Amino acid sequence: MPARAADIAAFDSWLSLALESGAVAVVTHRNGDMDTVGSACALASMIGSRARACGVHLSTIARTIVNSNGADFLRMDSERPVWPRELGGIIIVDAADPGQVGLELPEVPLCIIDHHDAGEELELGPGDLLIRWQTCSTTEIIHAWAEQSCPDRLDEVACSLLLAGIITDTGRFRHADSGALAAASALSLKGGIDYASFIEDMESIELNHSQKVSIAKALSRVNTTEAGPWFLMYTRAGTNEGIVARSLISAGADVALVHRHIEGNCRLTARASRRATLANLHLGEMMQDMVSRSGGEGGGHAGAAGWTGAIDSVDATSGFIALLSALRRNV
Fold first, then answer.
1. Nearest to 274 by CA among 141, 167, 177, 163
2. Based on the domain organization, do 52 and 183 belong to the same domain?
3. Does one domain contain both 114 and 168?
């Protein structure tokens, strides 16, 4: 049996045992981007009434798309999470390890479904399962499972949530491979989605006035530097770091870095151009190097990654620039 088919069969077995013991929580990582939220909501809806998507945060685009599709997502208090009395298992989507969800998890069987490059090897219990594929997004993994195990449950809402996750995690397909393109095409066809209208609606998601002002301020204080062979643009933002970083890439940066102070920590959000990733840049690996340098949590993809840690923003930004400067560029 091919490896991916075997993973899907193993997940079906894990899920069957978990549902026999109680409800299943499908948990997102703490940043609540569209890939993690779309994966969680679509997966929970296809599992059925005994599963629920939940997490501590929804990004602006994730919140809008969840609401517009009438999807179910439970916001949880990171300090006082409330779990079902009878919880059979927890599925963590789009996170490399349980520490990235921002919640204290009860001792029940875990299943981790993720597509990021592994850092340290996870210590799994006898009832736990890890599914990690080299795909552009976690939503592609959920789509593959649905097509094999329950294609009749892959309705228009689930297709829309999964498609939105692929679109955002590939940077509007700038970092997509053939698998991501094939999955997006299949989801559009299955869900009867007009892609042109869908992407137009995603790009027109309205920001409120304070968000627009915050983004404008972030763009007004941009700094630039030659970090070794890379042209870096960096700034501080109060919100919507991803939008700010994407704007800097559009403005010509090889790499865009946005830092934000949140809940006593510094958070770095980085984006890279396609030509930079083709020239040997992998931001996810750099953010793992940030963890080695400064602690905290970090990782991601070649073209989009993040890091969070308890150091000041000057130290964090300097550390990132030093790592970037030391990376040789393949022409």
1. 177
2. yes
3. yes
Domain that holds residue 193: 3-203
- Strands 265-272 and 304-309 turn out to be antiparallel
**Burial class, 126, CB count within 10 angstroms (exposed 0-12 / middle 13-18 / buried 19+):** exposed
Question: Among 244, 218, 222, 242, which Cα is nearest to 232's?
Answer: 222
The pLDDT profile of the chain, 331 residues, written as one tens digit per residue, is 588 999 999 999 999 999 999 999 999 998 899 999 999 999 999 999 999 999 999 988 899 999 999 999 999 998 899 999 999 999 999 988 888 898 999 999 999 999 976 555 667 888 999 999 999 999 999 999 999 999 999 999 999 999 999 999 998 888 899 999 999 999 999 999 998 899 888 877 767 777 788 889 999 999 999 999 999 999 999 888 888 998 999 899 999 999 998 878 999 999 999 899 999 999 999 999 999 999 998 888 888 889 999 999 999 999 999 999 999 998 6
Domain containing residue 39: CATH number: 3.90.1640.10
DSSP conformation class of 116: S
Question: Into how many domains does the chain fold?
Answer: 2
Q: Which of 39, 20, 45, 5 is nearest to 153 (CA)?
A: 45
* Cα-only R_g, the chain: 19
Those residues with Cβ within 8 angstroms of residue 89's Cβ, 6 or more apart along the chain or in another chain? 14, 15, 17, 18, 19, 21, 22, 24, 25, 108, 109, 110, 111
Instruction: State how far the Cα of 270 lies from the Cα of 301, in Å rounded to an integer.
Output: 10
DSSP string, 42-79: HHHHHH-TTEEEEES---HHHHHHHHHTT---EE--SS
CA distance 177 to 195: 18
The pTM for the full model equals 0.80
Domain boundary pick from 153, 177, 203: 203
C-alpha span between 237 and 306 (Å, rounded): 14
